[in-house]
Amino acid sequence: MAQEGRPALEHRPPSPRPGRRPRGVTQGCLVGDTLIAVGRIVRPQGRWGEVRLEALTDVPERLRELTECYLVPPPAGERRAVEAVWFQGEVPIVKLGGSEDIEAADALVGRLVSIPRGSVRPLPPDRFYAFDLVGCRVETVDGAPLGVVEDVWAGAAHDLWVVRGEGRECLIPAVSAIVADVNLTARRVVVCPPEGLLELGA
Questions:
Q1: The pTM is what?
Q2: 143/185 same-domain check
Q3: CATH number of the domain that 83 lies in?
Q4: Is residue 58 domain-shared with residue 134, that is, in the same domain?
Q5: Residues with Cβ < 8 Å from 184, sequence gap 6 or more?
Q6: Alpha-carbon distances, residue 182 vs 47, 52, 125, 148, 172 (angstroms)
Q7: Do 113 and 33 fall into the same domain?
Q8: Distances (CA, A) of 96 to 99, 108, 197
Q9: Looking at the structure, do residues 87 and 110 belong to the same domain, yes or no?
Q10: Residue 185's domain spans which residues?
Q11: Position 5 in a domain
Q12: Do 34 and 101 fall into the same domain?
């Protein structure tokens, strides 16, 4: 699954420092084809139906803008009004319509707070959300097919794109020295892997 929030990659000329992370990748939850999860309900908070969220966005402050959301499951989402959002330290607290006491809040634990895919903020040119990368075909600069992006893993130094092809899986570091081009319209990623990288996951 893939998370709404931080752009997946900003392309620029290769950095003079090998392996420098261009802008990072965020993954989280792409729920079906229509919803993006921005939070997961982890437990009740208070006595009046409020819930504590695990944020699935790199900009949790955006949660303050929500006026409604879709709770998953069910797969299509259950529409709920968002009555209030505030923060306890860095933890978002949300009051949802229809949740008026601790028992109602407890019944929501584990569900994903989601928004329509079309509601995510547009990004500047050459920057991408991780969930848009999943499913893109990947090839080398020489045109050799490697497979498709199956997942995006966040890492401390850099992120890894999980690419699965026929009979093998490889991990592509999301750094500008390796990722040469991303074309979401064509659903294509072009990479320039260093010698030995593709053999690591073979």
A1: 0.69
A2: yes
A3: 2.40.30.60
A4: no
A5: 128, 132, 133, 136
A6: 48, 36, 11, 13, 13
A7: yes
A8: 6, 10, 47
A9: yes
A10: 130-200
A11: no
A12: yes
Secondary structure class of 63 (helix, strand, coil): helix
**CA 70 to mean position of chain CA atoms:** 17
* Tokens 């729920």, located at residue: 31
Per-residue pLDDT of the chain (202 residues; tens, 9 = 90+): 344 444 444 333 333 333 333 333 334 467 777 899 999 999 999 999 999 999 988 789 999 999 999 999 998 999 999 999 999 999 999 999 999 999 999 999 999 999 998 888 887 776 788 888 999 999 999 999 999 999 888 777 888 999 999 888 999 998 989 999 999 999 999 999 998 888 765 5
CA 142 → CA 81, 115, 180, distances in Å?
A: 51, 39, 11
Residue in the structure block whose two tokens are 């006595």: 47
Are residues 134 and 115 both part of a single domain?
A: no
